[in-house]
């Protein structure tokens, strides 16, 4: 992989990290838009397999062979740059976005609304055509479910370590499931502010419990999602698209603290401008990624044609060595 592409993965990871800190934005959505989603999911699945084989094989004296094979299948050239970008992106967003979200909630939601709305095109394009009626129904049901989920009133939970562990295990699903915001789930149960405060204050105890919950949730969910993408790819992507559409409710700029929606009011023009900016940014990223995929497909076809021509090439009769009988 070229150095420029590795640097690009670092910036993609930073964008995913920022998204994970913002209520209403899914890190999985950003991974989809930037074209690294399926490689990250596949790599996470191989890591889970490696741990499982290490736990089962090594105590029985079978060695590390199967675990080592799974580790070798991981797309490290993608995973490591994304990780190195995601961690500082998350920490920076936790530090800088909290006051912006507090002081300009309508403006930021308008921007995020445009970002996520444009992102719906990603799973739709990945699913391809034709769509069956079952896919459309699944998308509608997922949209309704996400719409109802994002309308739940905010609750308050005591940040007990067990509560934090379970909440982190559920919230990490947003990292692998586009359309579901882990930060929004934390906000719904009242753990968003304690988590942001723990990150800013470097509360290692809270962070350790939260990270453990993330590992548990990731190990439990990623294999299921990988299986769904392998066996029911189009249906899974249709559900993802529906979840993205339904999650737009959380990003409607004009809403009360109880999350009831209202008609457009103050600051309509600047919010509309930010909304269009969000559409344009993700649209440009989507178009660039589609062009990159087309170029890669053309290069692969050209390489395959060249290989076929070389394998079927026959030298002229005059160049062939006569056979002595």
Automatic annotation (TrEMBL):
Keywords: Membrane, Transmembrane, Transmembrane helix. InterPro entries: VCA0040-like. Pfam families: VCA0040-like (PF04018). The chain crosses the membrane at residues 73-97, 109-128, 134-152, 164-192, 204-225, 267-288. The keyword Transmembrane helix applies. The keyword Transmembrane applies. Residues 306-325 are annotated as: Disordered. PANTHER family: INTEGRAL MEMBRANE PROTEIN, POLYPRENYL-PHOSPHATE TRANSPORTER. This is DUF368 domain-containing protein.
């Amino acid at each position: 992989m070229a150095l420029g592409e590795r640097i690009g993965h670092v910036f993609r990871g930073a964008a995913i990290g920022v998204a994970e800190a913002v209520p209403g934005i899914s890190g999985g959505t950003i991974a989809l838009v930037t074209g690294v989603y399926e490689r990250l999911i596949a790599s996470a699945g191989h890591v889970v397999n490696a741990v499982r084989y290490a736990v089962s094989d090594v105590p029985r004296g079978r060695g590390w062979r199967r675990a080592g094979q799974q580790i070798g299948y991981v797309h490290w050239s993608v995973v490591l740059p994304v990780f190195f970008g995601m961690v500082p992106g998350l920490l920076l967003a936790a530090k800088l976005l909290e006051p912006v979200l507090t002081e300009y909630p309508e403006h930021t939601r308008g921007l995020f609304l445009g970002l996520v709305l444009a992102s719906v095109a990603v799973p739709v394009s990945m699913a391809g055509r034709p769509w069956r009626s079952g896919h459309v129904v699944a998308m509608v049901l997922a949209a309704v479910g996400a719409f109802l989920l994002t309308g739940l009133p905010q609750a308050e939970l005591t940040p007990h370590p067990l509560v934090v562990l379970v909440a982190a295990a559920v919230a990490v699903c947003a990292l692998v499931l586009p359309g579901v915001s882990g930060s929004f789930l934390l906000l719904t149960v009242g753990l968003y502010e304690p988590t942001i405060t723990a990150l800013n204050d470097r509360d290692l105890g809270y962070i350790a419990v939260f990270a453990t919950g993330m590992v548990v949730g990731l190990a439990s969910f990623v294999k299921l999602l990988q299986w769904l993408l392998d066996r029911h790819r189009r249906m899974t992507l249709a559900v993802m698209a529906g979840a993205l559409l339904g999650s737009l409710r959380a990003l409607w700029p004009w809403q009360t603290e109880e999350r009831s929606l209202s008609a457009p009011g103050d600051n309509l023009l600047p919010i509309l401008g930010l909304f269009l900016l969000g559409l344009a940014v993700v649209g440009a990223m989507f178009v660039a990624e589609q062009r990159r995929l087309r170029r890669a497909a053309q290069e692969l076809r050209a390489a395959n044609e060249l290989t076929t021509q070389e394998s079927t090439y026959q030298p002229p009769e005059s160049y062939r060595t006569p056979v002595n009988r």
